[in-house]
Structure formats: C-alpha cells, structure tokens
Amino acid sequence: MHGPIFGEFMGTMVLIVLGDGVVANVLLKKSKGENSGWIVISTAWGMAVVAGICTAVACGSPGAHINPAITLAVAILSKNWSNVGPFWLAQILGAFVGAFLVWLVYLPHWKETPDAAAKLGVFCTAPAIHRSNGFTTYPMVEVAVLFLGIFLTMVPALELLRLRGHEFGVREPWQFFWASGTLSSFLDNAPTYLTFLALAQGLRLAPEVVGVPHAILAAISIGSVAMGANSYIGNAPNFMVKTIAEEAGVRMPSFGGYMLYSGAILLPLFAAVTVVFFR
Description:
The chain has 279 residues and is mainly α.
C-alpha cells in the first residue's frame, strides 16, 4: 500500500509509538529508562516527530501532516478541504494503533506501576500541580441580566436621539467625541456607536466615509470605545471582570470609587485627545 492516506496513518502511528514509548520507558516501574528524566523524553519526542515525517513521506504522503491541526491549517490556507476527512481519520486510527502497541509492549510494567497519574501521563499531559480553577457561570449570568435590562430601558432614549438628535446642536467632531463617549460610559459601545453614526448621517454633512466626514466617524468610534472604560457598565467585560474578581475574594472599588479612579486618569487623557485630534 502506498498513498497519502496510508502515509498519514503510518506516520502518525510511528510518531505515537516512539513518542509515547519513551514516556512509558521513563515513567513506568521496572523499565530500563525509569526516572531518566524529562530531557530524555524531550529529545526522543523530537526524534519521534522526524521519524514520523520520514515514514509518512516514504509511505506516500509528501505533506506529512501527521497531526489533525496541521491538516486543518493547510485546508484553511489552501482552501482545499478534500483531504481533511480522510487525513483526520487516518491520523486518529494511526494514533490509536500506536497507543495500543505502546500498551502492549509495556504490558508487564502497567501492573508494577501503582501511580495512576503516571500511567495516564504516558498518553496525555496534565498540569504538574492540579488545582481547581473555581470557574462558575455566575459572573456571565449577572452581566447578561444587567445589560439586558440596560438595553431594554435605553431603547426609547436611543430612538428619541435618532429622531430628534439634530436638535441637540451636535455637529463638530469634538462634540461627537464627548457625546458618544458620555453615553458609552453607561451603555455598551456598539449601540452608542450606531446611534451617533445614524445621527451624523442625518445631518447631511460631507459623505466622505459611510455618509459622514472621516473626522466625525473617528470621533464617534474613539469616543464610543475609549470612554467605555469610564465605568463598570461602560463595557460588559468591565463588570464581568469585577464580578469574577469579587467571587475570587479580590476586593474591588465600588461603582463610584471606580469612576473616581478612572476619571482622574482618563478624563485628562480624553481632554488631550480632544485638543490634539478633534478641535
């Protein structure tokens, strides 16, 4: 047999036989290489990769992917997906056969090794120190509920701004910068951006970019994004970070306390941005 699929199967099998084989030799009890150390594993794994590539090429796969991730990357770059399914199947089967051969060769040593983590480590990696990450979905749920309420209550205000915003006298770039930034400080940046873009388009100004002058578009974009950092609810991730930190026992500033910190640092910077870019 000779061909790309067979080459991927054989190359992956050799990679696993040699790579997992050296790990078994180092970790399992009463083996010749017991406790020989990580440098032996690293060196042998490097050789296993070379041997797997050479085997794949010799058996008919000049690309020698021997890894589903490589196959996927090649498909994305080349826009040719025809080999993904067959190569993945060949690689997975090759890996299973290789792992079975390692298990079979070291069959007597599994019983002699009481450490379950060491035996598992032959076929997969795990953190040296196991520690629960304490992840919960509570912060995401809290933020989702909060911002859903904010969006629902802001719909009438945003609609009013779209319909009668031209009466507010906002026409200059610096005005759009501060107006969009102020709203974005207490709302998410996406609806703020869209609202002020619609307002600017309704003013019938020079249609340089998406129907508005480029300076006004820049002012809306920067104001909406940058000033979202002014408060916890200016961007959803701000509040989520606060909630996650508090759940982990980290003390965080109050809503007003955070705004004092952010205002002391950011407002002078925004004033400088106004003078430099939006006068």
